[in-house]
Every structure is written in C-alpha cells, then in structure tokens.
Known about the structure:
homodimer
Amino acid sequence: MKKQQLTECPLFYGLGEHEIEDALSLFSATQISYEKGAHIMTLSDKSTQFWLVLSGTVHVCCDDEEGHHMIMAVVTPFHTFGESLCYLGLHSGVYAEAKTNVTLLSLDGSILREPPHSSLQFLLQQRFTAMLARKALEMNARIQILCKRSIRDKIFAMFTHYGGQSNGRAFSLPFDRAGMAFYLGVDRSALSRELCRLEDGGYISFSKNEFYWHFH
Amino acid sequence: MKKQQLTECPLFYGLGEHEIEDALSLFSATQISYEKGAHIMTLSDKSTQFWLVLSGTVHVCCDDEEGHHMIMAVVTPFHTFGESLCYLGLHSGVYAEAKTNVTLLSLDGSILREPPHSSLQFLLQQRFTAMLARKALEMNARIQILCKRSIRDKIFAMFTHYGGQSNGRAFSLPFDRAGMAFYLGVDRSALSRELCRLEDGGYISFSKNEFYWHFH
DNA sequence: ACAAATCCGTTGCCGTTGCAACACAAAATA
DNA sequence: TATTTTGTGTTGCAACGGCAACGGATTTGT
C-alpha cells in the first residue's frame, strides 16, 4: 500500500505519514483488489463501510426494470463511494462495478458517528462532511448536464465541466463511448452520431477517450 | 416563530424545547420572510450561512447561457438549502427563488466546523452530515429519473419516487406544470401532451398538482 | 367587478433521437 | 497466429419531443 499517495485524497489531504497511519487504523482500513467486471457493493448490502479507490475505475450504477443501465457515479483513484449509504446505515438499489482491475481501501464508518476522541478523529469527520458537500455540488453539475434538451448541449456541458473552460486543450474522459452514453442518459449510437457531427463541424476532435475542444 | 414544529426538521428532530432554543442560538438563527418571486441566495454570495424553510416553497435553480431554466432542488418546509456551499465556503452559479411567500431561518454554519464544545453541538454536526448524505441519495434518485430516455418513463419514475409505490393513492407535487417540466428537463408542452396521453390510457388522472396513480 | 397576469392544454411542424442491425477495427485470449 | 470479444461508427426508420403560437380557464391585483 502506497501511503505516500494517500495525501492526494480529499480525505487525507495534507496529513503526515504518522497521521495517515493513525487514520487508517481508526477506519480499520483493509486493502482489497477486484478484477475487472467484479461487483463490489451489491444491492442488498446494508453497509457499515465505504470504499476508497487506490487504482482503477469503479462505476456506481443501477439498472431499471426495463433493463436500462444507468451510471450514478464514476469513481477514480483517491475518491470514495458508498459514503452516504454507510453514514446512514442504509442499503439501496445501486451496485458498484470494477471497470478495470482495481485496488480499494475498505473503510469502516463507525468513527464518524462517535464524539471525537482526538483532533485527528475530528479532522476526519470534518473531511468526510466536506466530501459529502463536494459530492452534492458534483451531482448538481451532473443534473445541470442531464437537464439539457439535446445531446449536443449535453456534450458541450459535459466538456466544459470536465475539460475546464480552457480553450483548445485536450482532456480525457474516464469512460468509453458506451459509458459516456449512460452517463449522459442517451443512446450510444445517437451519441456517436452527434460526436461525429461535432467533429465535422470543426468543434471538436477526438480519438478514443481523448478529446480536443477547439474553441469556446 | 413556532418552535414546536422545528422538531419535524431533520436537523432538530426529537430535540426538546430547550435544546432547540440552544441550537438556534448556536446557529445564530434569524427569521426572514421573502415575498413570492424574491431571490434569496444570489449567484455571487460566498455564503457562511444556509437556510431552513419554515413555510412556503423555495426553488434552487440556475439558467444557462441560452436562457434555459433549470431547477436543481425544490425545498419544502423543514428542509434546508445552501448547506453544501455554506460548509465549503464557496459560491456557485445557482440562486434560490421564493415560489410562494416564504419564511426562512437563516443559520450560520460556523459551529459546524469547530470541535464540538457540547454534546448538542456534536449532535447538530452529526445531523448536518446526515442531511448531506440524505441529500446525496435524493439527488441520486433525481439522476435516475433524468436518465430515463422518454418523458413517459421520466414521469413514471418521478411518480414512483414521489407518490411511493403504493397503488391507487393520491399525492401532490410541489410545483406547477412548468416547474415539473423544468424538474424533468423536458419541454412544458411536451410534458402536458404526455400527461394527457397517460390519462387517456387510464394510467393516471390529475387535476392541478394532485395526481392519482391508478395501478402499478 | 374588471383588467392583467398566470397557468395549462392543444396543435402543426420538423429536427432529433431511440432502436435495431450491421460492419469494421482493435484488443484480448487461446 | 487464429479466434473471440469488445469498442465504435453507420444507417434506415419511425416515433418522440422541442419549439412557437394560440386560446381558454383560473388567479391575482386594483
């Protein structure tokens, strides 16, 4: 386990080596690996834990009755998932799937709910709350994207959100075309079609998950 | 100010009268009223406070460059808005609008970020975090609705979410038809059209904001 | 009570998008 | 290398939905 890199986590940002060790122990952290395609958090888990991604990509998703797939969240290294359910002690109709081989840290949420015995514990509680707040803002942005009326506008909104407003710069997205379609709540082939129209129009260019944003 | 009713808030649930008074004082609570149509939280506010709705309805919304209106959240009595921004000390591109005459409690978030001096303060911190977690789940549900591919499916998803799964029961929605359309990210007239198709098909009946859900 | 504003359904038009099916390329596997 | 699996673009078609414009009903305000 590379404790160095943990300072990049919103949860552990800026902590010293010893503090991180203490924090991991408070959370009863356990490292787990899953192979690509594995299901991590299942539908019925009433979880007392949440997860931190060390490497790889995880999708939090669900499927409706008609078999439609939806992606609730894309979790990249140093970010977490399952915190809300963990904190509330609930289960829900979502599951997490490893989109690549992943290594995770399983963290027990108990220490978040007891009065803090140390300043470190209090700090972690603060960080946890801040993470939830950030997640809310993140989901707000997602909702703004999904509310756009056309695929084109969804793409533009997503690009400005992911690629920053910087013009002419390249950026990559953490999913393939099918994943992108699920994320935007549109049909994959229709997305493909619209992306090519944008390329023909000179707005963007792309190859695989690498995109170029030509001008405003 | 009716302190009685505050026990219905997720934030103050189950607290005694004295505790609620203490809590309000910790939050430096101030009651404010706004008239229908007024803007409460503006785009540029770097807020140190969040708001609790005592009566009336507030919409948290934003408009994009093309002038499209979007509703991020509908806030009904005893619920709050602006907590995420408050906790993070950020401002954002959303604003809050009073959809009816409203009375609010303005709450200062400072006490949420300091080590708790009392068990009450700790409890409030816990409640606040739980509120954020619930909000995340709520937004997850919203995302699931928005990801549906057709207006009809969005309506169904919204009904099952708002009206419970109970069959044959009535429920009301906290917005008018235009608000509902914004909430679902669709055109108002198209929504109207689809609602009438559903009524013709015998799936639902409705009048104003009151809806009947006929069978599963 | 009257005027103004708001809310809601209706309709025609046509571009957009979902859907299914297929072809091809690249990558993974044996 | 041969074979399978996965990822991506393409296309035809029909239905859906966005848009604009309108009219009637209800509500609000004076």
